[in-house]
Structures are given as C-alpha cells and as structure tokens.
Specification:
- Helix content is about 35%, strand content about 20%.
- The mean pLDDT is about 80.
- The protein has a three-stranded antiparallel β-sheet. Strands 1-2 form a two-stranded antiparallel sheet.
- The chain is α+β, with helices and mostly antiparallel strands.
- It folds into two domains: about 50 residues, no CATH class; about 60 residues, no CATH class.
Length: about 120
C-alpha cells in the first residue's frame, strides 16, 4: 500500500467487529476526556502469537466480504490489489490488459449498480 495514508473509515467494519465481539474495552485515562480503548488480554495474547510467527498479515492476502469492487461495483469477495478492492474477475482483467489497450467491451450499464451508473454519467 506504500506511504499513502489509509482513510480511517476503511476500518469501520473491523472496529465494529472488535466492539461487537467484546475484544476491546474502554479504559479510563486521567485527564483525557476522549474515550480510549484497549484490547482484552486474550485478544492481545492472540495478536502477539499471530504477529510473532510471521509478522503482520499483509492486506493483499486477506479476502474481504461485502466490499464493492472498485472496477465493476459489485459486492462480492474482494482482495486489496494495488491499493483498491478488486474482485477476482476484475483483477484478472487488469492483469490481462496493458496500459495502451482499452477494453473493447463496455459493460451494459443496466446491469451495473445505480451508484456506478451515476458516477460514470458525472465523469462523462
């Protein structure tokens, strides 16, 4: 992912999961009015085990469920590729195409999600 800063909203699902599964707890810090959170001991212990074995898990090897593919806009299994979430089909398409080559087939806009069609209309 390089040196680009990742938008904090990217982690919303992860943070909700941590709170839902009670893997984080609020901690009182004197003089700090903002709420501070800390991993519970069992989660901290497991995180140490996971990172000690191989180092941090790379985002490129993690499958993401329910994220929109950056190219086709479909919600399906995606992977972090070159800083964007892509489904396998779109990733294979990107690998197959060269920089000079433009796709000859334009997808039928009636099959695309409404937000993708609106976005394409705005940039056209």
């Amino acid at each position: 992912m390089g040196d680009k800063e990742i938008p904090v909203e990217t982690f919303d699902a992860l943070l909700r999961d941590l709170a839902t599964w009670n893997l984080v707890v609020p901690v009182d810090v004197e003089g700090d009015e903002a709420e501070t959170w800390q991993l519970v001991p069992r989660a901290q212990h497991r995180l140490v085990e996971l990172t000690k074995a191989r180092g941090p898990w790379p985002a490129e090897r993690t499958a993401y469920l329910g994220r929109r593919c950056a190219d086709c806009g479909q919600r399906e299994l995606t992977w972090m590729r070159l800083g964007t979430y892509l489904c396998d089909t779109c990733w294979q398409h990107r690998l197959a195409s060269t920089e000079d080559e433009r796709p000859t087939q334009v997808p039928d806009s009636g099959k695309l999600p409404r937000w993708v069609r609106r976005h394409r209309q705005q940039i056209a």
